[in-house]
Structures are given as C-alpha cells and as structure tokens.
Amino acid sequence: MVDVPTVVLSSAGTLCIAALFFTIYNRRRAHIKMALSLSYQAIKNILLCQTKEQRILDFVLKNAVRGDPQSVIDNIDKYCSQREWSMNVGNEKGIILDNVVKESNPSTILELGTYCGYSAVRICRLLKPGVRFFTVEFNPAYAAVAKQIIEFAGLIDKVQVLEGSTGDIIPQLKKKYEVDTLDFVFVDHWKDKYKPDTQLLEKCNLLRKGSVVLADNVIVPGAPDFLEYVRNCGKYDCTNFPSFLEYMDEKDALEKAVFRG
Ligand SMILES: C[S@@+](CC[C@H](N)C(=O)[O-])C[C@H]1O[C@@H](n2cnc3c(N)ncnc32)[C@H](O)[C@@H]1O
Ligand SMILES: [Mg+2]
Which CDD domains match (predicted)? Predict the structure, then answer.
C-alpha cells in the first residue's frame, strides 16, 4: 500500500539533502552528480507516489534469486549504481567489510543503521550458524523494506531488526536482548552519532578487549569527531581502510577501531 505521508516527507527530505550537497559542494563534479540524482529521485517519488527504497525492494523481488544473499547484494548494487544512488555501503567498501568480519570471526554483532538491509545481508551471509546479529533502524519505512529484503535473502532467522534510535536501544541490549559483550560493531548511521554512540557502548560495558568497531563513511560525509576520539583517547588501536564512496568516484574510507579493554 502507498504511504503518501512517507513519500511526501522522504521526497522533501531528499530535495533538502540535494540542495545542501549542491550548495556546499557546488564546484565538485561527484557532488553535482549526486545532487542531480537526488533531485531526480525526489521528483520520481512524487510522480510515482513511491519511495526509492520501495523501488529497490521491487527490483530485488523481481530480479534476485530468493534465498541467495549474493544475488540480493548484486541486484541492489546493480540498481543503485545504474539507476538511483543510495546509501548502502556498496561493493568496494563491502569487500573491506567482508574481510574485517571474516578475520574477527564474531559471535555477537551490532549494526547501527540498517537502511534497506544491504550491509545486514552482506554481513550475515558470512556468519556461521548460531551467531547473533542485531541491526538498529529508527525509520519504520526503511525497517519494513529491510525486513522484506532480509527475508527474501533467506536470512531472517539470523537477523534481529531493532526499531528505534540507537541512543534508546544500546542501553537495552544487556537486559532486554541478553547481550554480554559485542564482538563486532558496524557503525553506519548518522555521522554525528558515531562518537556519542561509541562512548555509550563503552559506558554500557558492551565492548571487551578485542571488540572491533568498524565505521563507514569517515571521509564522506565524514565523522571527524569520531576519528579524533578513537585515534587519540588511548582506548583503541586504529586502522584506516581507504576506498571510495558507494557508487561514486569519490574518496571515502572505513576506520577499524579495536577496543583495548
Ligand atoms: C547509511 S544508512 C545505513 C546503510 C546500511 N548500513 C547499509 O550499508 O546497507 C544509515 C541509516 O541509519 C539510520 N539512522 C540514523 N541515525 C540513527 C539512529 N540514531 N538510530 C537508528 N537509526 C539511525 C537512518 O535512518 C538510515 O537508514
Ligand atoms: Mg555508509
């Protein structure tokens, strides 16, 4: 069913983001390209009375193979690189994410920022049975799309989509969700929350010696206060992985911060 307020709100939001990108970065080709793409998406949302996230879901349901996570990932990448730009971690940084997940061999994982479930599918396809994966999303429309994509990928039994804000959910993880400590945290929500939510994880005793905190988009849009904190507070060993912004020819990076305990 078409949710008109969601479409109108997301279109208005998208137009504002496009205007912001255009104003701030009006001399940079990649950002002009993104601004044009977001403006086109906003117009399409209004004309079709449908959101981009619903179009991503439709494309997956139509083209991917049910129960095949790799085919779901490939089809989202295809749609977002060829038709409409979208804020999934994408394939180039996704390969780095895969490698960091594999080398840390986690048993309990938290993702901050689900969006359409792309990175959740990407991470969960690598996990052995019995691993616990929680992903937090405060936009109900995105969470609904993510659940359908994760279900289509055949991974719904491995994933718990927690609807709400990270600031509310992180403090509930121990008691409500019986989490002792987290082995791996993928930080990919709004960038001004990276630092406070990392500090909240510490405060709630959810990190143990060796817990891996992997943060996306530390260059674009950028999380300078988070980088300054993890690199200089003395509690983490940090590694930077240079790469490119999802579906764009623009430098970005992931930062891996390993908690010293
Ligand atoms: C960049 S997208 C996540 C992309 C996803 N990790 C992927 O690569 O497929 C960021 C998401 O975080 C959500 N978000 C932002 N701040 C949040 C917060 N404080 N609590 C919960 N969700 C948040 C947004 O609604 C958005 O869907
Ligand atoms: Mg990201």
Answer: AdoMet_MTases (cd02440)
